[in-house]
Design a protein that fits this description.
Blueprint lengths: L3 E2 L10 H12 L9 H21 L6 E4 L2 H11 L4 E5 L4 H4 L5 E4 L9 H7 L4 E4 L13 H10 L3 E5 L11 H4 L3 E5 L10 E5 L25 H17 L3 H18 L4 E2 L10 E5 L5 H10 L2 E2 L15 H5 L4 H4 L2 E5 L6 H22 L1
Parallel strand pairs: 1-11, 3-4, 3-5, 5-6, 6-7
Antiparallel strand pairs: 2-8, 7-8, 9-10, 10-12
Helix pairs in contact: 1-8, 2-8, 9-13
The structure holds pyridoxal-5'-phosphate.
Pyridoxal-5'-phosphate binds next to helix 3.
């Protein structure tokens, strides 16, 4: 049986155009820092990709700093921006929450939305604020323009982890008001191990790794040319796909309506929040996320609990805990994240399998 993939927030299947771009770039193996013909061909690939990624982000090409992924971009933003005080929302990805010592967390409400008044009260001089565009576990969308305004009023820098928003929401770096923004290629049909930090001119970024001078001294080390070329190809297609997000939202709504109608006790976490069109976090009280995921995998459906980074050690989600949810939901919620390859039939078959499992598990527990 071919498994049905419903875990696109963990990673996405690579687009054929990205695979093709990676493969072509592998053949152009010059070092992009070399001045000869070999080097210049590789440099052209990097600069073409920079334009494609900049277009996805709604930023100037000069603002794009290629990194080894979202994790590095988040670390670079937080540790490299030169601000001693770091405030991040309590529902950030671990690559933000754990990027430095002495990080302070801004509380969120029951839907995982950041508390702007709390942020206002916490702001001091010399601060960087990091709040994600959309949450990887629940899909909840943060009021990032308001966060940026509050941060800037107090002279703080604002970083936005837009990894999960890219390709699903229109991005506009300037309009968002961010000083720095993170992207990751493998969440938009590109290769793993490559991402970008978008950095405004006025941010004096200090690199984490020293020596080499690449990326205008902001990220040292020879560029991952094949990865960057694949990222560029994926970014161009992802930017165009934002217009088709309504189709995903309709699938997501069908999923949630049938789950709520057919599975007693099921609930949608952050259901009242504005959310990504592709993400549902479904709680089934009393049945651990791990049990649910394993049963669904056996039935042919790939879903996850929280972030992929913590799977293999499934425990109560830190994000859901920060939203004030008790363990009967925080340890019993799965994430279903849809992608462009999913159909109505996938949704209907998934709900049927989930309903059968819930019935069996309920019967066992009784
Ligand atoms: N930020 C968010 C919101 C994510 O979901 C992820 C990946 O799960 C990352 C950052 C890390 O990106 P990468 O896998 O490219 O290191």
């Amino acid at each position: 049986m071919i498994a049905c993939y419903l875990d696109h927030n963990a990673t996405t299947p690579p687009r054929p155009e990205a695979v093709e771009a990676v493969s072509r770039a592998l053949a152009q193996w010059g070092n992009p820092s070399s001045v000869h013909t070999f080097g210049r061909s590789a440099r052209r690939l990097v600069e073409d990709a920079r334009r494609q990624v900049a277009a996805l982000a709604g930023a100037d090409s000069a603002a794009v700093v290629f990194t080894s992924g979202g994790t590095e971009a988040n670390n670079l933003a937080i540790r490299g921006c030169g601000r001693a005080r770091i405030l991040v929302s309590a529902v950030e990805h671990p690559s933000v929450l754990e990027a430095a010592d002495d990080i302070e967390t801004i509380p969120v409400d029951a839907d995982g939305i950041v508390d702007l008044d709390a942020l206002r009260a916490m702001l001091r001089e010399g601060t960087v604020v990091s709040v994600m565009l959309a949450n990887n576990e629940t899909g909840a969308i943060q009021p990032v323009m308001e966060v940026a305004a509050v941060a800037h009023e107090a002279g703080a820098l604002f970083h936005c982890d837009a990894v999960q928003g890219a390709g699903k929401l229109a991005l506009d770096f300037q309009a968002l008001g961010a000083d720095m923004m993170t992207l990751s290629a493998h969440k938009i049909g590109g290769p793993k191990g490559v991402g970008a930090l978008i950095v405004a001119d006025h941010v004096q970024l200090v690199p984490i790794m020293r020596g080499g001078g690449q990326e205008r001294g902001r990220r040292n080390g020879t560029e991952n040319v094949p990865g960057i070329a694949g990222f560029g190809a994926a970014a161009e297609l992802a930017a165009a796909e934002v217009a088709t997000a309504d189709r995903l939202a309709a699938l997501r709504d069908r999923l949630e309506a049938t789950v709520l109608a057919e599975i007693p006790g099921a609930r949608i976490v952050a259901g009242q929040a504005e959310r990504l069109p592709n993400t549902s976090c479904i709680g089934l009280p009393g049945i651990s996320a791990e049990t649910q995921i394993m049963a669904l995998d056996l039935a042919g459906f790939a879903v996850s609990a929280g972030s992929a980074c913590s799977s293999g050690k499934v425990k109560a989600s830190r994000v859901l805990r920060a939203m004030g949810l008790e363990d009967d939901i925080a340890a019993c919620a799965i994430r279903v994240s849809l992608g462009k390859g999913n159909s109505e039939a996938d949704i209907d078959e998934f709900v049927a399998a989930y309903r059968d499992f819930a019935k069996r598990a309920g019967a066992t527990a009784a």
